Amino acid sequence: MNGFHEDELQEKPIDLHIFRRLLKYARPYAALMVFCILLLMVVTAADLAQPYIVRSALDGYINAFKIPYLEVPRDKIPPGAHTVSWHDKTLVRSSDLSQAPPGATHYRIVEQHGKYYLVQGFAENGNVIIETVDGEIVARQGEKLLKAFPLDPDELKRFRARDVEGLTRLSLIFVLILFIRFAVNYVQVYLLQYAGQNIILNLRKEIFSHIENMHLSYFDKNPVGRLVTRVTNDTETLNEMYTSVLVNLFKDLFLLLGIIIVMMRMNFRMAIAALSVAPIIAVATVIFRNKAREAYREVRKKIARINATLSENITGMKVIQIFNREAKKFAEFDRINREYYLATMRELQVFAVFRPFLDLVYYLSLSLLIWYGGPRVIRGMLSFGTLYAFVHYMGQFFQPINDLAEKFNILQSAMASSERIFQVLDTESPIKDPSDPVAVGRFRGEIEFRNVWFAYEGEDWVLKDVSFKVEPGETVALVGATGAGKTSIINLICRFYDVNRGQILVDGVDIRDMRQSDLRRQIGVVQQDVFLFSGDIKYNIRLNDTEIDDEKIREVARYTNAHRFIETKPNKYDEEVTERGGTLSAGQRQLLAFARALAFDPAILILDEATSAVDTETESLIQDALEKITRGRTTIIIAHRLSTVQHADKIIVLHKGRIRECGTHEELLEKRGLYYKLYLLQFKENRSGTN
Ligand code: UTP
Ligand code: MG
């Protein structure tokens, strides 16, 4: 493990403090989210209504013929009651009467072998059998024989006209509810995703702009891959939390509570029977949660390892290939990949047990319902519709429980992700703009180091008590061995880092007292390792500055001789370069960077080994150009080849972070010190090189 993504392995408990902070991001969309919750209540109500309607259809209409009819004298019929005329009698369904008139005859419709009969005098519950006794159709109920009249289809239709009507009405309501549910659900999902995506959009913006303004030493400590994950993966995890957990938690709660309440009100004992499996669910969920968490952590650990290995190997592919390390690296990857596979399989196993187990419990609850409710339906103590509704409600009851585990995982990783995101957001850059910045115009270009001490890390001094002054318009060269601290001096002038002790003044103003943008706008730097962005050549010179027109680009390119190689490209200035400029040679990249630095017409120009990668001919051309462009500009040149710095107004010789010598080429040679030694060495090298 190379510590690349180690921070992703930490497991975070659900922390209220973090949670509150996450809610803060949702605040601009709070109204929307509350609205979504309301919509979800409508959806839940629709879900709850469906079994209820089916139950009404079953009990109120489809099975309604079982309700007895009473023969009521015409003048006793309550207004609005539905009546059926049959054999010059008027029958009213008993459920329409608040009170049965005393002495009224009961009738009941009985179905046998697909035929319907009206049985007279049949009042109580129980079964009758239709028989033919002496050529007459009768209904036998135990010892009793009752009169039975076969109903022809027309008559049956009349008896059931009202049920058919009612069923049609219920079906319409059912369909209507389905459509309303669909529409409301659509709006809710859309709005919720809208809110979620916007929260994440803003969060990504915030993270990126925060990273953008971070001091450079932050990037020394935080690998690219990690920061990329912050902006992409971690925010996506949060999106999932906002959209599928936060609001849907309410829905699940509504649904569970709603089902319990509706079931309790429908039939308390049945509800108890159905819910008696709840403790099993609770225990299973707790066990599962623990197992799943462990498995999940393992998977995260392995994927982090894959990420680290991949990003390192892909970045270093060239080295791998040069040293024929492919097979070895493949074996390494193969092992890590297999570990990841195994971890994933283990996680799947946990899920593979939990889901079917919940199914088992669900079917158990169904058997309980049928065992308890079935006989009661037969005995007429429970309506068939109610039994049906319970079966349906239990199905709905298990849905959110099934998802519970997943939501818990999302919540868990959201906590970890947000903690990491906040860690980035909470890291303040120590390099800040002053609260009351000194207004600076165009620099004259005077640079002064006053007793500057600097270390990248702790007391590991890279620059020790460095003092020097560059007059406006002067060209100063920094020379010294590798690691002497030359590039560090440049980093300090640009204020990529702050000095530990001492002061850096530009035009007599401490650079910490001016805005970073004011300072950097006037400094043009050609760095040791040129970075190009993906885009065309023009874009890489202009860098979004619209004030630099195409003519200016051509002009600076001609100055720096970049023009010549650009013209050889098929698309000239519109030639695409890939990220890091892989399609250009090192020298071409350097020329381009040179043009880029000049395009901004900086008051201070800094060239860090700018000529190290170009051939002698190009270098001499650049030297020519330099003479033109350094006029009226302070220039700092860093070069290993002393031949390129001979004409500098001043040469500063750095040795192990200290200034050892300072003067013109001639003065330094006369001194016969370090510079002289370096010069002799290179001189000899050149001589032997040409021999
Ligand atoms: P410099 O990068 O200033 O050296 O590093 P230099 O003079 O330009 O060297 P060349 O000629 O380009 O090779 C000075 C010291 O600062 C340390 C390096 O280890 C070196 O010893 N350093 C540099 C850091 O600790 N962190 C950095 O990010 C860069
Ligand atoms: Mg350097």
UniProtKB/TrEMBL annotation:
Mind giving the lineage of the organism this protein is from?
A: Bacteria, Bacillati, Bacillota, Clostridia, Thermosediminibacterales
Keyword NAD belongs to the record: no
Give TM segment ranges: 29-49, 166-184, 241-263, 270-288, 350-372
Record domain ABC transporter: where: 447-681
Q: Where in the cell is it found?
A: Cell membrane
Q: Which organism encodes this protein?
A: Thermosediminibacter oceani (strain ATCC BAA-1034 / DSM 16646 / JW/IW-1228P)
Q: What is the protein name given in its UniProt record?
A: ABC transporter related protein
Membrane topology note: Multi-pass membrane protein
Keywords, in A-Z order? ATP-binding, Membrane, Nucleotide-binding, Transmembrane, Transmembrane helix, Transport
ABC transmembrane type-1 domain mapped to chain residues: 34-413
Q: Which GO terms describe its molecular function?
A: ABC-type oligopeptide transporter activity; ATP binding; ATP hydrolysis activity
Q: Name one GO cellular component term.
A: plasma membrane
Q: Kindly indicate whether the keyword Transport belongs to this entry.
A: yes
